[in-house]
Amino acid sequence: MNELQKLYPVKEQAKAITHIDSETYEKLYQQSIDQPEQFWAEQAEKFIDWVKPWDEVTSVDYKKAEISWFKGAQLNVSYNCIDRHLATKANETAIIFEGDEPTDDTRISYQELHDNVCRMANLLKDRGVKKGDNVCIYMPMIPEVGYAMLACARIGAVHSVVFGGFSTESIKARVLDADCQVVITADASVRGGRHIPLKANVDAAVADCKDVHTVVMVERTGASVNWNNERDVNYNQVIDTYPAICQPEIMDAEDPLFILYTSGSTGKPKGVLHTCGGYILYAAMTHKYVFDYQEGEVYWCTADAGWITGHSYIFYGPLANGATTLVFEGVPTYPDAGRFWQVCEKHKVNIFYTAPTAIRALMSLGDELVEKYDRSSIRLLGTVGEPINPEAWHWYYEIVGQSRCSVVDTWWQTETGGILITSLPGAVDMKPGAAGKPFFGVKPAILSKEGELLEGKTRGRLVMTGSWPGQMRTVYGDHQRFYDTYFSQYPGNYFTGDGAKRDEDDFYWITGRIDDVLNVSGHRLGTAEIESALVLHPAIAEAAVVGYPHEIKGQGIYCYITLMCSSHESDELIPELQEFVAKELGRFAKPDYIQYAPGLPKTRSGKIMRRILRKIAENELENLGDTSTLADPSVVEHLIENRIIHE
Ligand code: PRX
Predict the structure, then answer these.
(1) What's the whole-model pTM score?
(2) What is the spatial distance between Cα 473 and Cα 415, in angstroms, rounded to a whole number?
(3) Which of 81, 274, 553, 557 supports an S-S bond with 521, CB 3.0-4.6 Å?
């Protein structure tokens, strides 16, 4: 362990505030493992208002990938996030909206949130949306994205939020897969002063989706848009005509709440399905304990609603706890790289949660833009999405947090619904770069590649040996894929896809994905998706994509392509292909490097040896491993000679 990774004991200041100290953590954790039913029943009563209690706390069969929590119970998630707070918090701020421009902000009280969500729910009902219908949401980071999600939850519709940076093709694939008949969008989004025509993207995406009968459009920028009178509804023009009351639909705990598509190592993105009861309990409870949320505090998670972090820790978790949650439309570098800290000063943010990629990007621009702003309100800093390198951790802790705030690393996944491994503030010491220890009820284990359980200080593949309420329940429309992806490799365990090590103090350190999933600026991408996008281009015969370490983004995208005809190689083709992928998938998927590969290293059975391609992209040539099993070992020489050396 080097100097940068040394242990930081629990902050005295955190100890004073938090209700969970080290002893309580150990005791509660043990109880959650020894008596899970009792533990979860108590938490469920404490955090959630149920219409009807459960018949059975949990039933889990990993052999069939069948998981249920609180079966027989009834509730409504939107009621839990809004209505139950009205008696005491009607006039308190639920959402602080900070727009792209620093002059643009608003506060939305719990009463206003209620009224806006009810109106949106009534609008959806009016357009025929019923319990169990799937609704696609493709929106900027404005309060209406929250209204739309909660309106769906209120009437029992299942939302599928598609990140606003995704392309037309990605929206179309998701609308079709979930058979959404309604899409909620905005005229355009504006981030860092840049406008993205969301409505036009939706128009193009749904042109081939015959079941889409309604597109609801929120006016954000006033951009001119094409209009289809039959199909399109202007939210701003009609919303005041709908009543601000809408009875919440009574839902079973195991009824679906949302679908969220995420990338895997093979095939098209999977629709991760979460259900009402277990998810909202887990989101609320982790939000409360991991961020140590206290009444009246301002909490800011900088994620986008299009990712799971936005679902669980901008909207569902904080609102279930009656918190004040900040919704930020912009980017960390607009109008300048001091924006995060300027917003913290302006709104007196107490808890700040962001991704290592943002921390690294801001760190590279110096301390001045941080120190210019008053950060004395901040008491807790969180990170999510990828391992944080110790240098970035130290900058976050020392410069942003003035060496007085707890830093909580939070490891989790779209599939897990909420945080599973973390350094619980006030309870677990901080080790820069370590994700920490399991949250209550969570049972991580490390296995060898062959599936042998490894004890003590070790390194291997991270699995969960039991379930927790926030766990996904299925892949939408493909339960077999759910089983195959997560439960088939190591029977009896949930396989995370991540590698991890456990140290002498039982801390978990995530070492990254062990499959073909990339993590680019905290965005999850399958190499197969990028390859499929590349081969759609008429010039390309074959493509292989790998990740390489990138100083800011965590991982960069390196592509090898074989052309239909090698004489088509040209300097112009590369940028054209980069744009082509960006258009197919979204800008965040734009390849960093594309190398021509007249041949790819394949085994005699035709399998591409990615291990070799990864080493070449990383410029690590000493350790290429055995190349003698390749059908044509000479292709490796060519690839090495023509590799692109990056900084
Ligand atoms: O590899 C892990 C990494 O992100 C993956 C999950 O990505 P996604 O489903 O998009 O969810 C991201 C936000 C929860 C994981 O398999 N990851 C996430 N958080 C961390 C992390 N790696 C290391 N440390 C983390 N704190």
Answers:
(1) 0.95
(2) 9
(3) 553
